[in-house]
């Protein structure tokens, strides 16, 4: 034993450890997106809007249901923190924890971004990813994680003892406040755990701590989503740049990100079934 807190292993320790893993949420019964139809709908679509998110800042955008949107690397290796809301109801927002449980720690083509309870429906479906080749590296890291929360000034103060105002939490709060014309203190309560776009992360094999490493994203890379409902989005160009050394920093190189909104021809979506809110009958009690 190495410390007062180490406990001796029982005689049947190895037997206990050999119990087989069981997937908590087997997703074989999930209704998948019609990826063939969505792939066909991507052909011939037209870009109708774009938003540039400056380095170490946040920006907002809106995507009508049935449109596609892309987050694009434009100048250098840069990660982004993404929040999504129902454009008509901020109480329905992205649920990173359930997305992680239904899919995986990192998401890719065909995976869906789910909304919180009691709505629990797909908000967006990933339709293209130029970093799909990355897979899992020797450190156990992948790209586009739904593990981390977002860098924030409160944790920064807790760990470093100073105040930093360009954290992704702060950037997302300011972007939402500006978009909705509400006080930033009110907007902050709507900001939630994120999809870490382009971020390369995993858990260390020894201490099992969340780690980040330099993102493989390069100018021209993008991840693309299909809006399953009318969306309001906010994106922070993380002050960690490619997150290869630190975040919440004014010293690492940072670059802008571009959000593009694309409109497909309506006839190409003929027959597509858009998701309704979860059908669980709440009137029967919780």
UniProtKB/TrEMBL annotation:
InterPro entries in the record: DUF1989
Ranges for domain DUF1989: 52-232
Region of interest: Disordered: 1-20
Pfam families linked to this entry: DUF1989
Domain of life of the native organism: Bacteria
Protein name per its UniProtKB record: DUF1989 domain-containing protein
């Amino acid at each position: 034993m190495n410390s007062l807190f180490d406990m001796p292993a029982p005689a049947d320790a190895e037997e206990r450890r050999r119990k087989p893993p069981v997937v908590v949420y087997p997703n074989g019964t999930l209704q998948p997106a019609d990826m063939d139809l969505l792939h066909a709908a991507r052909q011939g679509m037209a870009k109708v809007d774009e938003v540039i998110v400056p380095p170490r800042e946040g920006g907002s955008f809106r995507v009508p249901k049935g449109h596609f949107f892309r987050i694009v690397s434009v100048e250098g290796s840069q990660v982004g923190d993404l929040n999504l809301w129902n454009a008509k109801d901020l109480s329905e927002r992205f649920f990173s924890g359930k997305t992680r449980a239904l899919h995986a720690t990192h998401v890719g083509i065909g995976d869906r971004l789910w909304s919180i309870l009691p709505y629990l429906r797909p908000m967006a479906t990933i339709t293209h990813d130029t970093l799909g080749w990355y897979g899992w590296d020797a450190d156990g890291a992948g790209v586009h994680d739904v593990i981390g929360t977002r860098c924030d000034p409160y944790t920064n103060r807790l760990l470093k003892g100073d105040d930093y105002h360009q954290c992704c939490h702060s950037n997302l709060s300011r972007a939402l406040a500006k978009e909705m014309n509400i006080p930033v203190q009110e907007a902050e309560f709507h900001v939630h755990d994120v999809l870490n776009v382009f971020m390369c992360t995993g858990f260390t094999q020894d201490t099992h701590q969340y780690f980040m490493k330099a993102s493989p994203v390069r100018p021209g890379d993008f991840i693309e989503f299909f809006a399953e409902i009318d969306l309001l989005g906010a994106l922070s160009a993380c002050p960690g740049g490619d997150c290869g050394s630190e975040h919440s920093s004014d010293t690492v190189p940072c670059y802008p990100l571009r959000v593009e909104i694309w409109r497909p021809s309506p006839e190409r979506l003929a027959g597509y079934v858009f998701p309704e809110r979860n059908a669980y009958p709440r009137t029967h009690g919780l």
